[in-house]
Design goal:
Elements: H1 2-49, H2 56-85, E1 92-95, H3 96-113, E2 117-120, E3 128-131, H4 133-149, E4 156-164, E5 167-173, H5 178-182, H6 189-197, E6 201-205, E7 210-216
Parallel strand pairs: 2-4
Antiparallel strand pairs: 1-3, 4-5, 5-7, 6-7
Helix pairs in contact: 1-2, 1-3, 1-6, 2-3, 3-4, 4-6
Length: 221
Protein backbone atom coordinates (compact mmCIF):
# COMPACT_ATOMS: atom_id res chain seq x y z
CA UNK A 1 0.00 0.00 0.00
CA UNK A 2 2.90 2.37 0.75
CA UNK A 3 4.15 1.95 -2.82
CA UNK A 4 0.74 2.98 -4.12
CA UNK A 5 0.78 6.16 -2.05
CA UNK A 6 4.30 7.04 -3.21
CA UNK A 7 3.21 6.80 -6.83
CA UNK A 8 0.04 8.77 -6.23
CA UNK A 9 1.86 11.58 -4.46
CA UNK A 10 3.63 12.56 -7.68
CA UNK A 11 0.54 11.81 -9.76
CA UNK A 12 -1.60 14.03 -7.52
CA UNK A 13 0.77 16.96 -7.91
CA UNK A 14 0.72 16.55 -11.70
CA UNK A 15 -3.08 16.38 -11.70
CA UNK A 16 -3.39 19.52 -9.58
CA UNK A 17 -0.86 21.32 -11.78
CA UNK A 18 -2.61 20.31 -15.00
CA UNK A 19 -6.01 21.49 -13.79
CA UNK A 20 -4.60 24.71 -12.32
CA UNK A 21 -2.86 25.53 -15.60
CA UNK A 22 -6.08 24.94 -17.53
CA UNK A 23 -8.08 27.12 -15.12
CA UNK A 24 -5.54 29.95 -15.36
CA UNK A 25 -5.70 29.73 -19.16
CA UNK A 26 -9.48 30.07 -19.08
CA UNK A 27 -9.27 33.05 -16.75
CA UNK A 28 -6.70 34.72 -19.01
CA UNK A 29 -9.13 34.32 -21.90
CA UNK A 30 -11.86 35.96 -19.83
CA UNK A 31 -9.56 38.87 -18.92
CA UNK A 32 -8.54 39.28 -22.56
CA UNK A 33 -12.18 39.63 -23.61
CA UNK A 34 -12.93 42.07 -20.79
CA UNK A 35 -9.85 44.10 -21.74
CA UNK A 36 -11.00 44.19 -25.36
CA UNK A 37 -14.41 45.49 -24.34
CA UNK A 38 -12.84 48.01 -21.97
CA UNK A 39 -10.88 49.27 -24.96
CA UNK A 40 -14.13 49.71 -26.89
CA UNK A 41 -15.60 51.72 -24.02
CA UNK A 42 -12.51 53.91 -24.05
CA UNK A 43 -12.95 54.46 -27.79
CA UNK A 44 -16.57 55.48 -27.21
CA UNK A 45 -15.45 57.95 -24.54
CA UNK A 46 -13.00 59.55 -26.95
CA UNK A 47 -15.67 59.71 -29.65
CA UNK A 48 -18.05 61.40 -27.20
CA UNK A 49 -15.37 63.93 -26.24
CA UNK A 50 -15.13 64.89 -29.93
CA UNK A 51 -18.86 65.47 -30.03
CA UNK A 52 -19.77 62.32 -31.87
CA UNK A 53 -23.04 60.55 -31.11
CA UNK A 54 -22.74 57.12 -29.51
CA UNK A 55 -25.31 54.45 -30.29
CA UNK A 56 -26.81 53.34 -26.93
CA UNK A 57 -27.26 49.83 -28.28
CA UNK A 58 -23.52 49.54 -28.91
CA UNK A 59 -22.83 50.65 -25.34
CA UNK A 60 -25.36 48.16 -24.01
CA UNK A 61 -23.77 45.38 -26.07
CA UNK A 62 -20.33 46.11 -24.63
CA UNK A 63 -21.76 46.22 -21.12
CA UNK A 64 -23.54 42.90 -21.65
CA UNK A 65 -20.33 41.32 -22.95
CA UNK A 66 -18.43 42.39 -19.84
CA UNK A 67 -21.21 41.13 -17.56
CA UNK A 68 -21.21 37.73 -19.26
CA UNK A 69 -17.45 37.40 -18.88
CA UNK A 70 -17.61 38.37 -15.20
CA UNK A 71 -20.25 35.67 -14.69
CA UNK A 72 -18.09 33.21 -16.61
CA UNK A 73 -15.07 34.02 -14.43
CA UNK A 74 -17.19 33.64 -11.30
CA UNK A 75 -18.32 30.17 -12.40
CA UNK A 76 -14.72 29.15 -13.17
CA UNK A 77 -13.51 30.35 -9.77
CA UNK A 78 -16.37 28.63 -7.92
CA UNK A 79 -15.47 25.34 -9.59
CA UNK A 80 -11.79 25.94 -8.85
CA UNK A 81 -12.69 26.57 -5.20
CA UNK A 82 -14.59 23.27 -5.01
CA UNK A 83 -11.64 21.47 -6.59
CA UNK A 84 -9.13 23.04 -4.19
CA UNK A 85 -11.22 22.16 -1.14
CA UNK A 86 -11.40 18.50 -2.19
CA UNK A 87 -7.97 18.15 -0.56
CA UNK A 88 -9.23 19.40 2.83
CA UNK A 89 -10.36 16.01 4.16
CA UNK A 90 -8.67 12.83 2.92
CA UNK A 91 -11.72 10.65 3.54
CA UNK A 92 -15.25 12.07 3.58
CA UNK A 93 -18.80 11.80 2.23
CA UNK A 94 -19.24 13.20 -1.28
CA UNK A 95 -22.11 13.68 -3.69
CA UNK A 96 -20.94 11.55 -6.60
CA UNK A 97 -23.01 13.34 -9.21
CA UNK A 98 -21.75 16.75 -8.05
CA UNK A 99 -18.18 15.47 -8.08
CA UNK A 100 -18.60 14.16 -11.61
CA UNK A 101 -20.11 17.48 -12.71
CA UNK A 102 -17.15 19.37 -11.26
CA UNK A 103 -14.58 17.20 -13.07
CA UNK A 104 -16.51 17.64 -16.32
CA UNK A 105 -16.28 21.42 -15.90
CA UNK A 106 -12.55 21.10 -15.28
CA UNK A 107 -12.27 19.04 -18.46
CA UNK A 108 -14.32 21.39 -20.66
CA UNK A 109 -11.31 23.13 -22.19
CA UNK A 110 -9.55 19.81 -22.89
CA UNK A 111 -12.72 18.51 -24.55
CA UNK A 112 -13.10 21.66 -26.66
CA UNK A 113 -9.52 21.31 -27.90
CA UNK A 114 -10.40 17.81 -29.12
CA UNK A 115 -13.76 18.95 -30.54
CA UNK A 116 -15.59 16.63 -28.15
CA UNK A 117 -18.82 17.26 -26.27
CA UNK A 118 -19.26 16.04 -22.70
CA UNK A 119 -22.81 15.26 -21.58
CA UNK A 120 -23.81 14.48 -17.99
CA UNK A 121 -27.07 12.59 -17.52
CA UNK A 122 -29.10 14.45 -14.82
CA UNK A 123 -29.44 12.67 -11.48
CA UNK A 124 -32.91 11.99 -10.12
CA UNK A 125 -31.59 12.24 -6.56
CA UNK A 126 -28.25 12.74 -4.77
CA UNK A 127 -25.98 9.70 -4.52
CA UNK A 128 -23.44 9.94 -1.72
CA UNK A 129 -20.49 7.69 -0.98
CA UNK A 130 -17.64 7.81 1.52
CA UNK A 131 -14.39 8.08 -0.37
CA UNK A 132 -11.19 10.04 -0.93
CA UNK A 133 -12.46 13.02 -2.98
CA UNK A 134 -9.21 14.25 -4.49
CA UNK A 135 -8.12 10.77 -5.55
CA UNK A 136 -11.58 10.06 -6.93
CA UNK A 137 -11.46 13.25 -9.01
CA UNK A 138 -8.05 12.21 -10.30
CA UNK A 139 -9.36 8.78 -11.28
CA UNK A 140 -12.48 10.22 -12.96
CA UNK A 141 -10.27 12.62 -14.91
CA UNK A 142 -7.99 9.81 -16.07
CA UNK A 143 -10.98 7.76 -17.22
CA UNK A 144 -12.45 10.81 -18.93
CA UNK A 145 -9.14 11.68 -20.59
CA UNK A 146 -8.89 8.13 -21.89
CA UNK A 147 -12.49 8.26 -23.10
CA UNK A 148 -11.87 11.48 -25.03
CA UNK A 149 -8.82 9.90 -26.68
CA UNK A 150 -11.00 7.13 -28.09
CA UNK A 151 -14.29 8.98 -28.64
CA UNK A 152 -16.60 7.52 -31.26
CA UNK A 153 -17.61 9.15 -34.54
CA UNK A 154 -20.27 11.29 -32.85
CA UNK A 155 -17.57 12.91 -30.70
CA UNK A 156 -19.81 12.87 -27.63
CA UNK A 157 -18.97 11.27 -24.29
CA UNK A 158 -22.00 10.64 -22.10
CA UNK A 159 -21.46 10.23 -18.37
CA UNK A 160 -23.94 8.91 -15.84
CA UNK A 161 -24.08 7.75 -12.23
CA UNK A 162 -26.03 4.65 -11.21
CA UNK A 163 -26.73 3.42 -7.69
CA UNK A 164 -26.21 -0.25 -6.95
CA UNK A 165 -26.28 -2.47 -3.89
CA UNK A 166 -23.52 -1.20 -1.60
CA UNK A 167 -21.85 0.45 -4.57
CA UNK A 168 -22.09 3.17 -7.19
CA UNK A 169 -21.26 3.03 -10.87
CA UNK A 170 -20.00 5.75 -13.22
CA UNK A 171 -20.48 4.99 -16.91
CA UNK A 172 -18.46 6.58 -19.73
CA UNK A 173 -20.32 5.94 -22.99
CA UNK A 174 -19.78 6.92 -26.61
CA UNK A 175 -16.32 5.39 -27.06
CA UNK A 176 -15.11 4.18 -30.45
CA UNK A 177 -13.28 1.21 -31.90
CA UNK A 178 -9.89 2.46 -30.68
CA UNK A 179 -10.91 1.50 -27.15
CA UNK A 180 -9.89 -2.10 -27.72
CA UNK A 181 -6.43 -1.02 -28.90
CA UNK A 182 -5.92 1.27 -25.90
CA UNK A 183 -7.07 -1.41 -23.45
CA UNK A 184 -3.54 -2.83 -23.56
CA UNK A 185 -2.15 0.33 -21.91
CA UNK A 186 -5.17 1.38 -19.87
CA UNK A 187 -5.44 1.15 -16.96
CA UNK A 188 -1.82 2.16 -16.44
CA UNK A 189 0.13 1.46 -13.23
CA UNK A 190 -0.99 4.89 -11.93
CA UNK A 191 -4.60 4.08 -12.74
CA UNK A 192 -4.25 0.74 -10.99
CA UNK A 193 -2.84 2.43 -7.89
CA UNK A 194 -5.83 4.78 -7.79
CA UNK A 195 -8.23 1.88 -8.23
CA UNK A 196 -6.52 0.00 -5.41
CA UNK A 197 -6.57 2.91 -2.95
CA UNK A 198 -10.22 3.64 -3.75
CA UNK A 199 -11.11 -0.07 -3.62
CA UNK A 200 -12.80 0.28 -6.99
CA UNK A 201 -12.87 -1.64 -10.26
CA UNK A 202 -12.75 -0.60 -13.89
CA UNK A 203 -14.45 -2.55 -16.65
CA UNK A 204 -13.79 -1.97 -20.36
CA UNK A 205 -16.40 -3.14 -22.84
CA UNK A 206 -15.06 -2.58 -26.35
CA UNK A 207 -18.15 -4.14 -27.95
CA UNK A 208 -20.43 -1.34 -26.74
CA UNK A 209 -17.77 1.37 -26.37
CA UNK A 210 -18.06 1.87 -22.64
CA UNK A 211 -15.94 2.26 -19.52
CA UNK A 212 -17.55 1.37 -16.20
CA UNK A 213 -16.06 2.56 -12.92
CA UNK A 214 -17.51 0.77 -9.87
CA UNK A 215 -17.00 2.38 -6.46
CA UNK A 216 -17.83 1.03 -3.00
CA UNK A 217 -20.44 2.74 -0.88
CA UNK A 218 -17.69 3.35 1.64
CA UNK A 219 -13.93 3.26 1.18
CA UNK A 220 -12.22 1.99 4.30
CA UNK A 221 -9.12 3.55 5.78
Amino acid sequence: MADHWQTLGEEGIQFMGKMSASISHELKNVLAIINENAGLLNDFCRMSERGMDIDPERLAKVSDNITRQVQRADAILKNMNLFAHSTDTPLTVVDLHATLAMVIKLATRFAANRVIQLKLVPASEPLTITTRPFLLENLIWRCLDMSMNVAGVEKTITLSVIAGKDQAVIRFQGLGSQLEERSTIFPSPQDTDLLTILQSTLTIDSAVGELTLTLPQATSN
